[in-house]
Structure formats: C-alpha cells, structure tokens
C-alpha cells in the first residue's frame, strides 16, 4: 500500500457541495473518504455514501455503532449493504455486541454473494480521551490508556472484527497483541508538524502521519490538517510522500 492509499479524508462538513469540492480536489491523492456523524446527520448516510461511491471514492462509514446486539447487527447489515470499505462499532459495547456486528455484516455479504467486504472495525478509546477523562466517567481502573486500548483490541479480535481505530501511540503494542497481520489499524488524531493551521485542539493523543505509519498504522484518518490547509492537494501529496519515504527507510 502506498502512502496515498493510506489517507482517509474525514468529510467533516455539512453538505454535499462541500463534499463534491473535496473529492474533486483530493480524490487522486488519497485512499478514501470518511463519513462521520456530522455529514451522516446533515445529509443522510445512504445519500452521502452513494455520492462518494458514484465519484469513485471508497468510504469508511464512521458512525460508531453502540447499542444492544440486535440493533447493531441490523445497522452493520445496512452498512455492508451500502458497500462501504469499512464501518465501525464501539469496542466497549462488549463481545456479544461486536459478534452481532460481524453477523450482520456477514448476512449482507451472503446476500451479495461475496466472501469478503465491509471491514468491521472497533473503536477502542477515543483519541480525544486521556486517563483523567476516563476517570470522570468511571472507566479508569488504574490501567494506562494504552493498556486499556490493547485490552479492547484483544476483545475486538476475539469477536472476529477486522481491525481497530487507535492512536499511533498504541499501534506498536497492538501489533504485538494481535498476531494476524491482516488485522487493520486505523489512526486518527494526525497532526503533521508543518500543519500549523491545525493545532491538536480536542485531540488528547495526537501523532504525525509519519509516526503513525512507522508505528504500524495501515490507514490514517485526516480531518482538519487537510480540510483547513491553504492548499489541500499539496498537503495531501506532501503527507503521502513523507509516509512513503519513512516506510522506504524502515
Ligand atoms: O480534524 P481531525 O483530523 O482531528 O479529525 C479526526 C476525525 O477522526 C474526526 O472525524 C473524528 O470524528 C474521527 N475520529 C477520531 N477519533 C476516533 C475515531 C474517529 O478523531 N477514535
């Protein structure tokens, strides 16, 4: 996979006109597009997916499902019916819920007569959270965030999920925990040191794109460092080249 293929652009905008401009500017220089709750709630998830697909883009459907198993199963089936590259569920919804997501996804694959598709990905600990934020909600038991991420990753892998969303700071440990080399790591909270227009802001565990791939991330999710760049195309190309150079040195 080249550096370009690893970039998933977070379509954190409110309407399809802006999505159209972003795809036009970036499609040739990135691997895909992420439809999160902002765009999904503004224009509708199926509409947004269809819009991106019809322009040749791949979709990471980031709706972070977490509910009772039966509901998540149905949502996962619907996501896979839309033909997305990947979708996500919260790992802290538990083993049964994650297994239900895999079942729902698999039902859609059977309908489509496919053996593979729509990777089911687990959100571990949000990259906006640190140990004090976990303490506030009673999720902190003295275990460092990185260990909590690894614990949730093991649970996700056990449930048959295809990968996790985690900070690059945890990617090395994840690779040691899950032996399957096909297990995917997706890393948000990317802040290139030169992207002065996008400070860490709400992200508590940021890393650069280069650190992310060096740590073992397969994909990086990039929002503000690209969306707010004075020249988005140049910024995407620079990120891809720098990741390629780092991986060639490794
Ligand atoms: O603008 P920025 O690059 O920080 O955007 C990161 C994107 O990745 C946002 O769309 C956010 O919802 C998403 N995300 C995240 N942390 C996760 C999962 C997804 O920041 N754990």
Question: What's the SSE blueprint?
Answer:
Blueprint: H1 3-6, E1 7-10, H2 16-26, E2 32-35, H3 37-43, H4 45-54, E3 59-65, H5 69-81, E4 86-90, H6 95-111, E5 119-123, H7 131-136, H8 145-158, E6 163-165, H9 168-177, E7 184-187, H10 209-215, E8 219-222, H11 224-227, H12 232-249
Parallel strand pairs: 1-2, 1-8, 2-3, 3-4, 4-5, 5-6, 6-7, 7-8
Could you please say which CATH topology applies here? TIM Barrel
Shape: globular
The largest sheet has its strands arranged as: 1-2-3-4-5-6-7-8
Q: What is the strand content?
A: 5-15%
The helix content is 40-55%
What oligomeric arrangement do these chains adopt? single chain
Total beta-strand segments: 8
Ligand identities? cytidine-5'-monophosphate
Overview of the structural elements:
The structure is a single chain. The chain has 250 residues and is of the alpha/beta class. It has one domain (3-249): Alpha-Beta Barrel (TIM Barrel). It contains twelve helices and eight strands. The chain has an eight-stranded parallel beta barrel, surrounded by seven helices. Helix 5 links the parallel strand 3 (59-65) and strand 4. Helix 3 (37-43) crosses helix 4 and helix 10 (209-215) runs parallel beside helix 12 (232-249). The radius of gyration is 17 Å and the shape is globular. The model has no long low-confidence stretch (mean pLDDT 95). Cytidine-5'-monophosphate is lined by residues 10, 12, 36, 62, 123, 126-127, 165, 188-190, 203, 221-225.
